[in-house]
Amino acid sequence: MDGCFKLVSPPRPAGARSDVTPFGVETAKRTRAFHASFPEYSVTPLADLSGLAKELGLGGVYVKDESYRFGLNAFKVLGGSFAIGSYLAGRLGVDIGQLPYDRMTGKETREKLGDITFVTATDGNHGRGVAWTANRLGQKSVVYMPKGSALERLENIRALGSDASITELNYDDAVRLANQGAEKYGWVMVQDTAWEGYEDIPRWIMQGYTTLALEAAEQLRQLSVEKPTHIFLQAGVGAMSGGITGFLRDCYGDEPVITIVEPNKADCIYRSARAGERYCVTGEMQTIMAGLACGEPCTIGWDILRDHADHFISCPEYVAAKGMRVLGNPVNGDTRVISGESGAVTLGLVAELMQNPSLDWLREPLGLGSDSRVLCISTEGDTDRENYRRIVWDGAWPSF
Q1: Which residue in 52, 95, 102, 342 is deepest, having the highest Cβ count within 10 Å?
Q2: Which residues make Cβ contacts (< 8 Å) with residue 358, sequence separation at least 6?
């Protein structure tokens, strides 16, 4: 069995903590209004896996299924589209609320803006969202992908008219390559990795993700669940997990237990939490969880997670594979969820914690039990179908 489980549960900082209102409920309402103006918008399903909850000895298990998002099989378009919309609103001197989809993509706006090229680095899902938005705007996009990226993801991006390529670089170096292109050619970089002097667009991307969190909160209330007790969020650079953690604290307060989950081979957020300061992981970071193969934490996301998340877990590869199989082969009566490697790791962790007695040391600090109401987000579907089948059909990365 590869890898190991690692947990750190640092005390929350004393005194003032980072402000979550930029990602709170009111921001999410504005963000959702922007996304709702898109013809492709619909609320993605929240699967109530009551059969699985009973099987695992939990009070409830709920999985937000982002494979339905805008027909792109992943949640990432929420961040990229909102960031691009916010950037264009700034260029036009209007509020984002005055720039719905039909105006943003209209001829008058296009003539005012002229030609723009958006550039980004991606393992696939984020780049597809940026390329899709640029395509709708009649603009260009350039997308750099790290070494080892799936050809299916590359072709999906190219199909949107993007100049996309797989590099010989790891993810973080691909980000640097994109930034070099932006500086050299005047392209607009749309990246969720923030650093000093580059914070507006990453913040807008993080805010874009709050649409799904607001939907989930409303869907839980429709199921008479006023507040989940436990939320598990996967992290790459920490933009999605940071933005949604900010929303959750603003929406629910300090009570829900928030746990951040990463692969052993790319656990920069876990290592940052252990060190008490932002920590970067280097190297190729070869993990099946391609969407989480990031080594340099987003500064804005890290600040939120440092101050507001409860637990940070680094886990082996097989956890994601287990989550894919559990979600794809549901208990009788439960909804089937097609979830990719990065999407399924949180549910895989929950299942492993509840079924593996050797992990009592890890489960007990999280407080998981028969009264727990657990929320996970399946951030992607089978965006790499070949690997999905290798795991779910052929049994790659077995649990035991």
Answers
A1: 342
A2: none
- Give start and end residues of each alpha helix (H) in 186-257: 200-222, 239-252
Which residues, at least 6 apart from 357, have a Cβ–Cβ distance to it below 8 Å?
A: none
Instruction: Judge whether 123 counts as a catalytic residue.
Output: yes
pLDDT for position 195: 87
Catalytic entry in 76, 250, 267, 382:
76
Long-range contacts of 5-8 (CB under 8 A, 24+ apart): 5/313, 5/314, 5/315, 5/316, 5/359, 5/362, 6/264, 6/267, 6/270, 6/313, 6/314, 6/315, 7/311, 7/312, 7/313, 7/362, 7/365, 8/270, 8/273, 8/274, 8/311, 8/312
What pLDDT sits at residue 329? 97
CA contacts within 13 A on the Cβ side of 283? 9
Q: Which of 379, 372, 259 is nearest to 308 (CA)?
A: 259
pLDDT band at 2 (very low <50, low <70, confident <90, very high): low
Per-residue pLDDT band for 215 (boundaries 50, 70, 90) equals very high
Question: For this structure, is 76 an active site residue?
Answer: yes
